[in-house]
Amino acid sequence: VYYMYAEANLCIEDWYMARYTMRNFSKTFPTSDRAEEAEYQAALCSYRLSPAVSLDQSDTRTAMDELQLFLDRHPQSDKRDTCNSMIAALRTKLETKAWNGAKLYYTTGKFQSASKALAQFIGEWPVSVYAEEAQFLILKSQFLYAEQSTERRQAERYADAIESYFTFAARFPLSEWLRDAEQFYRKSRQGLERVSQD
User: Fold this and answer.
1) Which of 34, 95, 117, 164 is 20 to 30 A from 143 (CA-CA)?
2) What is the pTM for the complete model shown?
3) CA triplet 37, 1, 64: central angle to 5 degrees?
4) Taking the CB of residue 107, how many other CB atoms lie within 10 A of it?
5) Which of 114, 122, 128, 94 is nearest to 160 (CA)?
6) Handedness of CA 97, 100, 103, 108 (dihedral sign)
7) Residue 30 contacts by C-beta under 8 Å, 6 or more apart in sequence?
8) How many of the other CB atoms lie within 10 Å of CB of 37?
């Protein structure tokens, strides 16, 4: 009867209540034939509660944890592939959220913060689909930051841009942005030489 009540919450798409009742069922009746299904449904409710990328992602992390816990408890489950694909989708959502936040500094012209935020993004998501663009924007941000700096600060900032170029070129030798990166490298070298002569 309690399981039917939990299912009713699923049917009316009350994900919070459905998650609560499914969790409660699996804890109260751990030996039931439906305990595994109840755990899965609770994790699925958490997945459905994951908000849009632009919002706080606490529920997304909770959903990932619950899906992983289900997989750890039931490694032979026939729902394994579905859970793994849901975890991958949630991870992509977190990656996109992090990328949007890091790129926002560049978009708003805060180039010093942009280079740091983008470097942190690459540190957290080294194999991201956005890694190439992030590495390029680090170089571009450092160059633009050097251009905006006072003369006494320009030398070290041009040097940072040059170093970022080498990192970018080594990591992405076939990049569509390589030609633009080379231009920033040349301009940074020229800027460094100009500042060094003064």
Assistant:
1) 95
2) 0.87
3) 30
4) 10
5) 114
6) negative
7) none
8) 18
